[in-house]
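Forwarding these from the shared drive since the link keeps breaking.
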Amino acid sequence: QVQLVESGGGLVQPGGSLRLSCAASGIIVSIYHMGWFRQAPGKQRELVAAITSGGNTNYAGSLKGRFTISRDNAKNTVYLQMNSLKPEDTAVYYCNAARWDGPLIEYWGQGTQVTVSS
């Protein structure tokens, strides 16, 4: 069985920081394209950041360098460091794993809530 388990979400004040974790089982994250997505109420799910199996990263331009995705192969875990948080960052954050060397394969975590409020 494949599981992606997110943790680290919660309530934080504007300007604060959080680090989200995505612990994977059933897959090896170093051979998958890993990503973080978020979805706010009434809005479409959007890509936040991604890291390829080769280590290349991609970010949504609107984040302006505030977020950083990383991978710890020894722990089989992907992280999202979130700094200078704003109320508009409030959303459910989802971990994603994908491969497309053959037929597309995707897995999703259940999500973790991030609320930025004063």
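-- next protein --
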Amino acid sequence: QVQLVESGGGLVQAGGSLRLSCAASGRTFSTYVRGWFRQAPGKERESVATINWSGDSTFYADSVKGRFTISKDNAKNTVYLQMNSLKVEDTAVYFCAAGLSTGYSLLRREQVSYWGQGTQVTVSS
């Protein structure tokens, strides 16, 4: 069993930045892909960013590309999501995720084996 613990959510004004963190405990993510999803009120949960464990591949949703950066610190077994130039439409609950997948692409909901508890990100105008 793997546990994912998120932190870093909060309230920020449009144009500002936040950094989300997701620390993992339990079994080693030897082949797991890790990523971030978000879900806004009335909308489906969508994949935002994904990184493979080796860190040599990253993928982003078009809506956040160029503004968000996913990274990891293997020593801390932690994945980060740096969010810059935030927009009101980025407001959502953000979920850390880990799953097993083949190939390199955005992690899909059905591929997720472990979810974080979710952290609220609210962007005000």
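The mean pLDDT is 93. Residues 19 and 82 are 4 Å apart (CA to CA).

- D.
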